[in-house]
Amino acid sequence: MLKARQYKSGVKPIWCPGCGHYSVLNAITKAFAALEQAPENAVLVSGIGCSSRLPAYVSSYGFHGVHGRALPLAAGLKVARPELNVMALGGDGDGFSIGGNHFLHACRRNVDIVYVVMDNEVYGMTKGQASPTTPEHWEHSKLTPHGPEVRPFQPCAIALAAGASFIARGHSGDPNGLAQILFEAVQHPGFAFVQVLSQCVTFCPEQAAWKERVHQEDHCTRDPVAAARFLHGDDGFGKGIFYRNPRPVWPLVHAAAAAADLREGFRL
Ligand code: SF4
Ligand code: MG
Fold it and tell me: Is the CB of 13 under 6 A from ligand 1?
């Protein structure tokens, strides 16, 4: 058994002091400790962005991919090596804009992986541009001084519509609650989507007020209609597991046989 701190790699994070992603890192290591996760059997896969640096800070295998492509990498790895615990990670720009297409199809396909999106409603690494989840009238970017004037993307509702079988939201201000959600997400058989409200202190200092707005929602259901009704009325600050409805994971019988053939082919 390892303690949570023993899942840290020893590489010092270069996030800004106070960035929400430190708490997400702590939550992941706490969840791994609770799961008694063997480090050599865990793989964290990311795209590009501040949050996508996270795999370097965990003592497991990691793959820092290209922008928006964490999900196809993670899904391919899980199909090729089903015995591994695969977690994809990234931010809202990486996952919902550049990688938006992959997000939809990962939900639909239901490969047995976890996808954690650290959502700070901004492109942090490239210095504060509006992202898909930026509020319509956010006026703090020089590129969109009157706000993006576009309705924000609704990650959980879209995940439900696209077929995700586990949907949850956590908050970086509550690493223990997030660790509990991740503990459940890792054990869920199928695609588990976890949105994390993780504040960017540098470009969105106003997000410090999120802690006043976040509230617990004990609303977990396996009924997609009830989940849709809840998510469409949600203010975006409820945290908890909203939907859990296991269904067959991909690859199914024929695709699994094809994947086995492919693996055999690569061994030659
Ligand atoms: Fe975190 Fe924002 Fe700094 Fe990036 S720019 S490390 S998201 S606080
Ligand atoms: Mg972001």
Answer: no
